[in-house]
Automatic annotation (TrEMBL):
It comes from Trypanosoma cruzi. GO terms for molecular function: kinase activity. This is Putative target of rapamycin (TOR) kinase 1. Keywords: Kinase, Transferase.
Length: 185
């Protein structure tokens, strides 16, 4: 019996090592304390003062070069506005919004009644992600597949909890009314 991991896990670990994320590498090779590294699969965002981020960005490029990794498809040093993980960050106005590409992908989705289960999971994850960005809930009551909530907790952010009176034994559906993060079981 072994452990199955997706290729994204390996890519995150490699990218984190190149970026010098403190939880992955030894402190001698880690990013300085005044610099924050955000890594998602193959994307690296370096935040901090302009001089610190520029210096650490140069070090990250040297790290990538030393292990023959290609970097810099969409490199922007000192950017005041950029897109990271479907979000548009504007430092000039201190605003965060959904990126145009993300918005177009949501608008281009087919009608809900013609979707397969796999396509529905993609739609649900996009809507949950958008709702989290806007700091709102999608609706007052949610029907969630217990299996989906067990297997994909990142889609719901762990916000759904079991209520003993609202759990159906056979259908594995959970009725979660007024999801409350303080009442996790």
């Amino acid at each position: 019996m072994g452990y199955k991991a997706s290729p994204e896990i390996l890519q995150i670990i490699i990218t984190s090592a190149i970026a010098g994320v403190t939880t992955v590498v030894h402190r001698l090779w880690a990013a300085p304390p005044l610099v924050r590294d955000d890594v998602w699969i193959g994307n690296i965002r370096i935040a901090g003062s302009k001089s610190d981020a520029t210096l650490w960005g140069a070090q990250v490029l040297r790290n990538a070069d030393s292990c023959h990794a290609s970097m810099g498809e969409d490199r922007e040093l000192g950017a005041t506005q950029y897109t990271f993980l479907g979000e548009q960050f504007g430092h000039t106005h201190r605003a965060v919004s959904l990126s145009d590409k993300f918005f177009r992908s949501v608008c281009a989705m087919p009608a809900l009644n013609s979707l397969t289960i796999a396509e529905m999971e993609v739609v649900a994850s996009r809507f949950l992600y958008a709702a989290a960005i806007f700091g709102t809930q999608l609706c007052e009551c949610h029907f969630l597949s217990r299996q989906c909530d067990d297997d994909y907790p990142h889609l719901t952010g762990g916000l759904c909890w079991r209520h003993p009176r609202r759990t159906f034994r056979r259908q594995r559906l959970v009725w979660a009314r007024d999801c409350d993060t303080s009442m996790r079981i």
